[in-house]
Design a protein that fits this description.
The protein contains five helices and eleven strands, in the order αββαβαββαβαβββββ. It has about 200 residues and is of the alpha/beta class.
Length: about 200
């Protein structure tokens, strides 16, 4: 509906997280603390697969997340790359757009001319961007890969209130426990519970 598009496109957060001192660990020294190729392929498939022919998905990330992506893989292909930063004065080479805040990015992607060419909007990190997205009125789902191992991390996924999210399933996402390089993990999807108005 046009009225909904004007308000802002829904945001889906996607992350893989292990257990680290009771928290959800997502990174170490600016990199992933594991090497899970199939999980990376899942991330790529989910964030790049559009539900509407002719439209592209967008990925929103903070400056540190952008620069943590190996240069050979920047920008993330077949997706509109939006970088959030208050310190950068110009859009990083390869990125499509630079915004100062998450609300600014949502407005950009939800308004003409971009609104007609963008389908799904994915938030891919880091901590503050995830937190802002989770607390925003546009938060729709959290796609969380739970890495079932205790691994040292220095970057974390924000805690979220399970009273505000419900576990849901998606036919495109396996509910079976996966295993790779001796590490087990499972895909979980949490949908934001909004009070019907």
């Amino acid at each position: 509906m046009a009225a909904e598009a004007a308000v802002g496109k829904p945001l889906s957060l996607i992350a893989a997280a292990c257990t680290c001192n009771g928290k959800l660990g997502i990174g170490l020294n600016g990199d992933l603390p594991w090497n899970l190729r199939k999980e990376m392929a899942y991330f790529s498939r989910m964030t790049s697969t559009s539900t509407v022919t002719g439209k592209k998905n967008a990925v929103i990330m903070g400056r540190k997340t952008w620069f943590s992506i190996p240069a050979a893989h920047r920008p993330l292909k077949d997706r509109t790359n939006v970088v959030l930063s208050k310190s950068l004065k110009e859009c990083p080479t390869g990125a499509d757009h630079l915004c100062q805040s998450l609300p600014e990015a949502v407005k950009l992607l939800s308004s003409p001319p971009l609104a007609d060419s963008i389908d799904l909007v994915w938030v891919i990190g880091g901590f503050q961007v995830y937190k802002d997205a989770m607390e925003s009125p546009y938060c729709h789902r959290i796609y969380l890969t739970r890495v079932m191992k205790e691994i040292e991390c220095d970057t974390f996924f924000p805690e979220f209130d399970l009273n505000r999210f419900k576990l849901v399933t998606d036919p495109a996402v396996s509910t079976e426990v996966q295993e790779e390089n001796g590490i087990q993990y499972k895909y979980e999807i949490y949908e934001h519970l909004r009070q019907s108005e």
